[in-house]
Amino acid sequence: MAILEVEDLKVYFPIKAGIFNRTVDHIKAVDSVSFSIEEGKTYGLVGESGSGKTTTGRGIIGLENITAGKILFDGVDITDKKSKTKDIRRDMQMIFQDPYSSLNPRKRVFDIIAEPLRNYESLSKLEEKKQVQELLQLVGLSPESILKYPHEFSGGQRQRIGIARAIALKPKLIIADEPVSALDVSVQAQVLNFMQDIQKELGLTYLFISHDLGIVKHMCDDIAIMYKGRYVEQGTKHDIFNNPQHIYTKRLVSAIPDINPRNREKQFRFRRDVQKEYDESYDDYFDDKGLAYGLQPISDTHLVALPERG
Amino acid sequence: MSNKLLELKNLKTSFQIGDEYYAAVDDVTLTVNKNEVLGIVGESGSGKSALAFSVMGLHTRAKIEGNILFNGKDIANITPQELNRLRGDELAMIFQDPLTALNPLMEIGDQIAETLILHNQNMSQKARKERVIELLNMVGIPRPEYVYEQFPHELSGGMRQRVVIAIAIANQPELLIADEPTTALDVTIQAQILDLIRKLKNDMHSGVILITHDLGVVAEMADRIAVMYAGQIVEVADVHTLFENPKHPYTRSLLNSVPADGQDKLHVIQGIVPALQNLPREGCRFSERIPWIDATHHEVNPVLHEVTPGHFVRCTCHKHFYFPDKTKEAELHGNSRS
Amino acid sequence: MWKFIVRRLLITFPQIILLSVLIFLMAQAMPGDALTGVIDPNVSLEEKEELRERLGLNAPWHEKYADWVGGIVQGDFGQSFRFKMPVTELLEQRLMNSFWLSLMTLLFTYLMAIPLGIISGRYNDTLLDSSITGYTYLGFATPLFIFALVMLWVFGYQLGWFPTSGSVTPGLEPGSMEYVISKFNHLLLPALSMALIQTVSTVQYLRSEIVDTKQKEFVITARAKGASESRVYNKHIFRNSLLPIAAFFGYEISFLISGTIFVEKIFGYPGMGLLFLESILLRDYSVVNAVVLIFGVAAILGALLSDIILSIVDPRIRIK
Questions:
Q1: Beta-carbon separation of C10 and A21 below 8 A
Q2: What is the pLDDT of residue A105?
Q3: Which domains does chain C show, CATH number per domain?
Q4: What is the ipTM of this complex?
Q5: Which pick of A89, B175, B182, B271 has the fewest CB atoms within 10 Å?
Q6: Residue B197 is part of a domain; what is its CATH number?
Q7: Are B242 and B118 in the same domain?
Q8: B227, B251, B277 — which closes off a domain?
């Protein structure tokens, strides 16, 4: 069953100009995006800066005003901000990119993690402390560290504090916005493993937003590629990596450095070929505004943005 | 004539914290040859950027010991005037963040021209402008005459990084140091910038030091790789040897922590990189992160051993290393594949 | 840039109108009116009432306001009750005096602030910097009126280097060389007193700008190009740090206004500040209104000036 369904989501930002600062146009940060995520799966949203991937995540959780579209969470329409009742909000949490700025430096770890508990559950002081300590243990931090401040932790530990806060209320869906891009390689591994572990343990569903195709490949079941606010391709991991159809997807895949130095020449050639194809067939993949077309199914799981045929 | 462009001999760069000096780069000996890309890989806190800044003489408050031989001449403690003659001319650097590396209030053209002015006063204004346009063309900036008069904030991140590169190559440096040149960029832009650096290196036959945390980037770019941990070089080898037959536990751990095909679980290195003040100064610095390896397998004073010609590994612990989640046999067996 | 300036100007007009309404309403709320105390106490209440009616003093406030503003636009601020002369005439001389005092103060302020701020910022955390920072803390802590009194006592009365009151020695012919020198001489001490205190905020601001800019990455880029330290400072750090200071200039005007009120009183310098105090004490409301309005407009125009300067010097705003 789909836990999250997004239909035709649009998030536009006004462009103000002129002497009277009137709205002259809109930046279509998210332009008609539709997808659904099955419970327990990890859905990857990939794109470069300015693609609208982060705005999509923020729009779903209510951090951004939605211009149009519909969001169903667990079958309930939560599009209207007012209807995003507390109960739904507790089932959907977010992990932010930067573990250095997303935790309030003046709050102790205890208060950071207890905050959602205090908002949604009335626990006694003792129960609250017990829960926070359990959460800390779950994310692999010592329960004694509840009285410390964020700056006393390393980047990876901070990100785990952020995760502890996000899972405090046992949510069903976690929107993870570039959760490891500010971290070192080895710390990245730690956080990714941990996210997989708690997914199994708590039956979580992830909307995993990232620019790093390597990590997305490792983490996700289904993947969507975004470009300038629109989807260019969506499919299973296999569809996207082994059978990319859209030229933009191909460009992204070809740009990833290959970790095997013996493949250098092959990779360069691949990149050159894709670039050539991109230059030659640009008009087949993008409309006159340089935007992607609507999605066309090419298999049960695989959708590609192509002009309508015939 | 020697092929060696840069030789670091026992380089030690220390910073004062409180009353004590702590070495961020500790006893580094390393060579960069002409027309070669040396990749330096390490995580934050490994000292790789401190090393680059030492070579460029950009540390304002650091104690530098040891030798930095550039074309055979020691530049570790030369006068500021001598240093300024080298910097921007024979020695140049590309920085990590193109959004902050350019002066926001200066026109792009003037920022590039400054490097030319500083090293060639005789150049006429006209010739200088022509050269700047030529450089902008070389780094692939469209409409260079127009961009000449633009300000940094009018350009995208990728374009700004091209400007930073144009500044660095303006006087055809012999040694180009690129400190995480693509970390702040999108992956398609990264591919273009790396391609550009590779092309420029081939044209100018410069030596390049490429500093990065991204193993994929060095796999694609480097001829040789040095892996740094906690201020020291733990392994040096040519790119194929390093990726196919890594020895040092840190190198192997690092390679296993990157997502790769068919990998179920990523390897996690225990513990954290210690802060500069807390670095273990004696024994194998990596030992506390592989506690399951018997202490007797570490050297008391670990040095770089040449295991095969050109392949150096620090400490003897690599001979006994295995990953804790696999048996020693399986690991040794797995390691013999190529 | 032009769009920005025009938009900024458009904001300024409502600001000024709002200010004038506020001033007018406050004046209305004060007890008494133009007739209070002017008329022979023997005149009967009925006659007074009739007089009020004829002078329009009983009209609703918005009519009176329109009347007042209409006058101002034509340069008529009304009559001063106490000086028995048109406010405009009264203001003219005072305004010029205050203008020269402010200009001189600004000049001294920047003459001190720029070198001190640059030295302090470049050599931060040295003994030199500590002594300059020490001075700025003293400056922040010293009330202007006490400092001005001390200056007056020491340099005016004890040492006798400067005149102790007025704006010019009486009896000199306006326009003559002596007259100009005397004017200048009268300006020096009050301007210097004010500048010595006022400069500290600019010194501090410039210092922190420089310390901030020093750590920017483009400075490292400049060093990597092979630029000498002096070039790095002159071409990159100072230039970039002075721009926000230039923008701060307009706001200095508001500080100047509050400063002149004290300083003119202490030095008996016949400017707007002194007039302001005198007319309050004498309940000369039409003068108070006019002075407050001029001060307010000056402050608003100062802020406008700041924004315009910033838009000219900073390309990030200029382009938009």
A1: no
A2: 85
A3: 88-318 (1.10.3720.10)
A4: 0.87
A5: B271
A6: 3.40.50.300
A7: no
A8: B227
Does the pLDDT at position B138 exceed 50?
Answer: yes
CA–chain centroid gap for C40, Å, is 39
Same domain, B101 and B140: yes
Where is the domain boundary, B194, B212, B227?
B227
Q: What is the mean pLDDT of residues A174-192?
A: 85
Name which of C226, C229, C243 is nearest B85 (Cβ-Cβ): C226
pLDDT at residue A185, as a whole number: 82
**Average pLDDT for chain B:** 89
Residue B270: which domain range? 230-335
B74, B183: one domain? yes
Q: Quick one: average pLDDT of A39-46?
A: 94
Task: Count the domains in chain B.
Answer: 2
A294 touches chain B (CB under 8 A): no
User: If you measure CA to CA, which chain A residue comes closest to C5?
Assistant: A19
Tell me, yes or no, whether B217 and B234 share the same domain. Answer: no
Token pair, residue B119, equals 């090293």
Residues of B in contact with A187 (CB under 8 A): 43, 272
Report whether pLDDT(B332) > 50. no
Among residues of chain B, what percentage have pLDDT more than 70?
Answer: 95
**DSSP code per residue over B221-285:** H-SEEEEEETTEEEEEEEHHHHHHS--SHHHHHHHHTS--TT-SS----SS-PPPGGG---SS-T
- Nearest-neighbour CA in chain B from C316: distance (Å): 7
The pLDDT value recorded for residue A81 is 65
Rounded-to-integer distance, Cα C267 and Cα C192, Å: 12
- Closest in A186, A192, A257 to B219, CB measured: A257
| Residue A249 contacts B where some CB pair is shorter than 8 Å | no
A48 touching B (Cβ < 8 Å): yes
* Predicted local distance difference test score (pLDDT) of residue A82: 62
Please report the domains of chain A, with CATH numbers, ordered by start residue: 2-228 (3.40.50.300), 229-236+244-310 (no CATH)
CA separation for the pair A212, A49 (Å, rounded): 11
Residues B15 and B91 occupy one common structural domain = yes
Res B336: pLDDT? 38
Q: Measured between alpha carbons, how far is C176 from B138 in angstroms, rounded to an integer?
A: 67
Residue numbers in A near B237 (CB within 8 A): none
Which residues of chain A lie closer than 8 angstroms to C6, CB-CB?
19
Whether residue B254 sits in one domain with residue B192: no
Distance from CA of B123 to the nearest CA of C (A): 17
Residues 147-166 (B) with a CB less than 8 A from some CB of C: 151, 153-154, 164
Under 8 Å CB pairs connecting chains B and C tally to 74
What is the SS3 assignment for C191? helix
B103 vs C240: CB contact, 8 Å cut-off? yes
Residue A10, chain B, CB below 8 Å: the answer is: no
Contact B118 C225 (CB under 8 A): yes
**Could you tell me if B174 and B48 lie in one domain?**
yes
Average pLDDT over every residue of C290-306? 86
* Mean pLDDT (whole number) for C120-138: 91
Residue C1 in 3-state DSSP?
Answer: coil
Contact B260 A259 (CB under 8 A): yes
Which residues of chain B neighbour C237 with C-beta distances below 8 Å? none
Closest residue in chain A to residue B268, using alpha carbons only: A190
Q: How many CB atoms lie within 10 A of CB A85?
A: 10
**pLDDT value at residue C318:** 60
Shared-domain flag, residues B208 and B253: no
Alpha helices in chain C (DSSP H): 2-29, 45-55, 61-73, 87-122, 127-141, 144-151, 177-214, 217-224, 229-231, 239-266, 272-281, 285-313, 315-318
pLDDT tens per residue, range A88-97: 778 888 888 8
Mind telling me how many Å the CA of A166 is from chain B's nearest CA? 22
